[in-house]
Amino acid sequence: MNMSVNIAGVEWKNPVTVASGTFGSGEEFSEYVDLNKLGAVTTKGVANVPWAGNPTPRVAEVYGGMMNAIGLQNPGIDLFCKRDIPFLKKYDTKIIVNVCGHAPEEYLAVVERLAEEPIDMMEINISCPNVNAGFLAFGQDARHVEELTAQIKKIAKQPVIMKLTPNVTDITEIAKGAEAGGADAVSLINTLTGMKIDINRKTFALANKTGGVSGPIVKPVAVRMVYQVAQAVKIPIIGMGGISCAEDAIEFILAGASAVSVGTANFHNPAVTMEVIDGIEAYMKKNGFESVKDMVGIVK
Amino acid sequence: MNMSVNIAGVEWKNPVTVASGTFGSGEEFSEYVDLNKLGAVTTKGVANVPWAGNPTPRVAEVYGGMMNAIGLQNPGIDLFCKRDIPFLKKYDTKIIVNVCGHAPEEYLAVVERLAEEPIDMMEINISCPNVNAGFLAFGQDARHVEELTAQIKKIAKQPVIMKLTPNVTDITEIAKGAEAGGADAVSLINTLTGMKIDINRKTFALANKTGGVSGPIVKPVAVRMVYQVAQAVKIPIIGMGGISCAEDAIEFILAGASAVSVGTANFHNPAVTMEVIDGIEAYMKKNGFESVKDMVGIVK
Amino acid sequence: MSEKKRENCTVVSQECIAAGIYSLWIQTEKIAADAKPGQFVSMYTKDKTKLLPRPISICEIDKEQGRLHLVYRVTGENTGTEEFSRLQPGDTLPVIGPLGNGFPVEKAEGKRVFLMGGGIGVPPILELAKEMNCAEKQIVVGYRDCHTFLREEFEAAGTLYISTEDGSVGTKGNVMDAIREKKLQADMIYACGPTPMLRAIKQYAEENNIECYISLEERMACGIGACLACVCKSREKDAHSNVNNKRICKDGPVFLSTEVEI
Amino acid sequence: MSEKKRENCTVVSQECIAAGIYSLWIQTEKIAADAKPGQFVSMYTKDKTKLLPRPISICEIDKEQGRLHLVYRVTGENTGTEEFSRLQPGDTLPVIGPLGNGFPVEKAEGKRVFLMGGGIGVPPILELAKEMNCAEKQIVVGYRDCHTFLREEFEAAGTLYISTEDGSVGTKGNVMDAIREKKLQADMIYACGPTPMLRAIKQYAEENNIECYISLEERMACGIGACLACVCKSREKDAHSNVNNKRICKDGPVFLSTEVEI
Ligand SMILES: Cc1cc2nc3c(=O)[nH]c(=O)nc-3n(C[C@H](O)[C@H](O)[C@H](O)COP(=O)(O)OP(=O)(O)OC[C@H]3O[C@@H](n4cnc5c(N)ncnc54)[C@H](O)[C@@H]3O)c2cc1C
Ligand SMILES: Cc1cc2nc3c(=O)[nH]c(=O)nc-3n(C[C@H](O)[C@H](O)[C@H](O)COP(=O)(O)OP(=O)(O)OC[C@H]3O[C@@H](n4cnc5c(N)ncnc54)[C@H](O)[C@@H]3O)c2cc1C
Ligand SMILES: Cc1cc2nc3c(=O)[nH]c(=O)nc-3n(C[C@H](O)[C@H](O)[C@H](O)COP(=O)(O)O)c2cc1C
Ligand SMILES: Cc1cc2nc3c(=O)[nH]c(=O)nc-3n(C[C@H](O)[C@H](O)[C@H](O)COP(=O)(O)O)c2cc1C
Ligand code: FES
Ligand code: FES
């Protein structure tokens, strides 16, 4: 049985990675998870310079999920390259660096800096809803996405994954924009924008008022979008949104995802990715699938 | 203490109604609920002619909620006026008729037919994601919404509530379109489009493939949208999406809803609306609110 | 007005009566008093992530003690029925009912009757058999294998014929095979079971001009006729829907076989 | 590598020790062995709709028997802590830990020390007091009213001073009032409690040039330093974050008072 998948020319040993921002750069989780067993590690978003992020409270629990408004706090690409990439290089897994920015120049600065680094792929976060900038709507407009993708592709030395926001009228338009710009893959979904009000304190649960909803509660929307995008583009899809067990991961794969990311579930059980990988293997055995790619998108 | 609310000139005895499609036309639920106690009854969507709806399975359970693709089955406006309105008139509650259609003419036919009927308000469903027609994207375009609203307002004899879909990039644009078209109120959210795949049978859980997600899992998105719309328009908002208890209802009111609808929760406990009404009253007492309108939108 | 409610019923007893099949008795305030054979109840889980009702047919009604007997199959891991299977005497269980129309038991009077049940459609046949007053009460039930259940109860209620898919008990095959093998005859049929079985019975009944009532299944959300989730195609334009759709939860689950298309 | 895990701990005992305050002993495989005073554990609920951890400080460590003592407040209805309060001996509870840095207990050697706790910040002071080896161990704890808890344990561990907001026990007021009233002196402070109390202690320590360690609280998602939810402002640019943010779950919860802004 063949658990490996090929995403835009990069061979992962299995289809499971972690969702950006839920796993740091892997170091903290390495006490709980054997990183060698992951198909890839996707890092927290990194920008050209350090970002301080939002005021606290930055997270709130909601029924069946959570909301976050971390605000993309990150140490900047310099420290990241010095510390986090060497750490991950010690493991036999693929490295996907998630990139964020307020403006095209900021993304490009990071992508350029990554060109000489020993990483395997990069994931461009054009969708984080927590940064209060005019740039917010960027990932919500197909033309802008196409343009940014094309600019990035011009200088990127590694395959580029465009990470899509679900807060749009038609996700297929955005995915097609990414594909037209030359993206090697797309990943989805980022968080759904939500709000929680504390009725006793009569205020917002998050300092930022709104936050990104994630966890099991977003799965039906995420599966739908992965399915729609799979019908709309030819590039591979990394599916995510509420994956908490192997069954969830398989749902995304049958809907059209070539690989999956586990996010919020890591907070509930830090070793959940290991269970997801084992569970996919067990399902394949039981259902007579020889290779992960034989499952991708078979429900049409 | 004053539980009554005035929505576009119509005085409800309390701010609680039911979400269209989850309560039939009230008759079946009248065995479990004293309809006289509801602020209003909102009926299942009705079209100019009978609709057969979608093939089954039409519903599926998902973690913390459900998906439906009923496909707006309805007996048509003639039978509706003959049977359902007289039934509801026996009760001391307001009647809101939910209207659906494939094209403006179909909506207008129903609105015109309702002009002489003893109903209190009408709610225009421009957002049901289950009808496979080119018209689907209608509620997702602010200009179209403005136009349809204006056309309806020209002939409507009762206040018009435009019911918004959450499957859009910017809900405030759509709400502003409704307001510009002359809507007396907006209601939101309709269901989020989702999908569920049965990994054992390797097929979709719903015959329609996609369905509308509702229940507690949609609440964070719904509260966010109600809040955003409350900042964007001056007309009253009827808030809904996952309300299962008084605390949920209050969250919507603090976010800016003048009234609320209880939907999927009716399937879990048919008398839940009574608990919601009592719970709002208890909260007002405890927190020293004299009137429901003193709570509306106070979290800013 | 508003005289029905979701009752918090108390579990009287629970037992596993065959592999994955559970027999549950619950104490009700009012549901048992109103119940008829062929009706069902909606059972609710305590798992806060599972909100929809589980419709389960009524297997026996003890009006004197106000109790209901429910027999159900656990459909898999992490399901609502698995949660129910862990209920202990004294535990409570939210239930709505009785729901649906039930079998027209009175129509059997003086007739030779087939009472047919297949798989997890067997249980509702029991109360029907117990209440039925007819000329010839031929109970024909089909199981997958030797893990039969409710046999003694059926034997006490009428003449019992069994079929099993693997032939380990009674006729090898399904309930139709049992009828053919035993050359049974009837003027009236009542049936509950999987759709292929009901389809065969419906065809047999229509070919032989036998009045036949079948109990159908569909995914439900409200269970009380309001949401239009659980429809089946009806031959005539239905008076409620004004289209060719009948609600299984409210207009059914029992239909005259000629009324519906399955 | 990957030597830590979410343990399914068994409840040894649970008791309500004051209104809404519960005392829980759990049996751990490994957590107790590694634990230090001032560290915390993440407790998980069984309610499938509540996914985030509940961080709870370690109140006592029984290394011999591999047990932890946790004392927590039920914060309201339908909360995770309410669920915990229903745990019975033998029940299991998913736990991760020990987490965070803990108090630098060794720095107290030879010093006159204040060990200060307020409200639900009182419990972690107990293990600290028990392990501390210092010249003068002055335990100053504040409660709202006469519903004090862990008093006997503190009396056994050092010299105990109590404040209550309503004056029903000890000094009327907060822990700072108790210090002033009793004219207590220290060269070293360890404190845990609500932010206003910590703010007052921090100011007092800085004005009097006393080395002071405070344990902070913030909403958490991962509890292990990966998500950046639980930050506080740090005076210097933090080496990990490269901005002026420290992670309370990983770099804390205990900080030198001069390191952080609260
Ligand atoms: C009128 C009627 C009477 C029934 N009587 C019995 C009975 O007496 N004994 C028995 O074992 N089963 C009966 N069933 C089937 C029973 O309702 C399902 O097996 C049960 O709902 C499955 O729930 P679960 O928690 O095991 O599965 P889950 O997978 O957790 O269910 C998920 C959702 O799907 C629904 N669902 C799943 N399977 C079915 C099904 N076959 N029919 C309708 N809804 C389904 C559930 O109600 C729930 O909403 C009856 C069904 C109907 C419609
Ligand atoms: C390092 C640390 C140590 C703590 N030690 C103790 C202790 O020993 N005893 C004790 O009673 N309490 C302690 N707390 C506070 C305790 O974590 C919260 O009271 C608890 O998480 C509330 O959960 P709940 O299920 O009651 O509330 P819910 O309202 O159900 O919680 C919802 C979410 O908010 C979080 N949350 C709510 N209040 C707080 C809070 N004050 N701090 C952090 N997260 C919160 C919960 O963890 C959960 O994710 C500590 C907090 C921290 C950060
Ligand atoms: C705390 C937190 C931080 C996140 N940070 C990032 C980030 O830096 N970059 C990014 O692209 N997505 C980020 N995300 C989004 C996740 O990668 C993922 O798209 C989303 O959470 C849905 O998956 P899940 O439901 O499995 O968590 C973050 C999510 C969470 C919960
Ligand atoms: C079974 C079902 C049928 C629905 N039918 C309609 C409808 O006919 N017209 C409409 O405007 N909304 C319809 N809705 C949407 C609800 O009115 C409501 O907007 C949505 O379910 C969110 O609220 P909830 O989470 O409380 O259910 C339907 C929802 C469900 C679950
Ligand atoms: S389940 Fe709602 S109408 Fe039958
Ligand atoms: S809770 Fe995740 S970094 Fe502290």
TrEMBL record, chains A, B:
Principal localisation: cytoplasm
Ranges of residues in domain Dihydroorotate dehydrogenase catalytic: 4-284
Subcellular location: Cytoplasm
Highest taxon, organism lineage: Bacteria
Record text on cofactor binding: Binds 1 FMN per subunit.
Primary enzyme class: oxidoreductase
Catalysed reactions listed for this entry: (S)-dihydroorotate + A = orotate + AH2; (S)-dihydroorotate + NAD(+) = orotate + NADH + H(+)
Pfam families: DHO_dh
Catalytic residues of the enzyme: 128
UniProt-listed CDD domains: DHOD_1B_like
Protein's name according to its UniProt entry: Dihydroorotate dehydrogenase
Residues noted as binding substrate in the record, renumbered to the chain: 44, 68-72, 125, 190-191
EC number annotated for this UniProt entry: 1.3.-.-
Organism: Blautia wexlerae
Leader sequence segment: none
Residue sites binding FMN per the record: 20, 44-45, 98, 125, 163, 189, 215, 241-242, 263-264
UniProtKB/TrEMBL annotation, chains C, D:
Highest taxon of the lineage: Bacteria
UniProt keyword terms in alphabetical order: 2Fe-2S, Electron transport, FAD, Flavoprotein, Iron, Iron-sulfur, Metal-binding, Pyrimidine biosynthesis, Transport
Domain FAD-binding FR-type: 4-105
PROSITE patterns in the record: FAD_FR
Binding locations of FAD: 54-57, 71-73, 80-81
Pathway recorded for this protein: Pyrimidine metabolism; UMP biosynthesis via de novo pathway; orotate from (S)-dihydroorotate (NAD(+) route): step 1/1
Binding site for [2Fe-2S] cluster: 222, 227, 230, 249
Needed co-factor(s): FAD; [2Fe-2S] cluster
Cofactor binding notes: Binds 1 FAD per subunit.
Keyword Flavoprotein: yes
Listed Pfam families: DHODB_Fe-S_bind, FAD_binding_6, NAD_binding_1
InterPro entries listed in its UniProt record: Cbr1-like_FAD-bd_dom, Cyt_c3_hydrogenase_gsu, Dihydroorotate_DH_ele_sf, Dihydroorotate_DH_Fe-S-bd, Dihydroorotate_DHASE_ETsu, FAD-bd_FR_type, FNR_nucleotide-bd, OxRdtase_FAD/NAD-bd
Functional summary from the UniProt entry: Responsible for channeling the electrons from the oxidation of dihydroorotate from the FMN redox center in the PyrD type B subunit to the ultimate electron acceptor NAD(+).
Subunit structure: Heterotetramer of 2 PyrK and 2 PyrD type B subunits.
PANTHER family found in the cross-reference section: DIHYDROOROTATE DEHYDROGENASE B (NAD(+)), ELECTRON TRANSFER SUBUNIT, DIHYDROOROTATE DEHYDROGENASE B (NAD(+)), ELECTRON TRANSFER SUBUNIT-RELATED
Family, per entry: Belongs to the PyrK family.
Name this polypeptide is given: Dihydroorotate dehydrogenase B (NAD(+)), electron transfer subunit
Species annotation: Blautia wexlerae
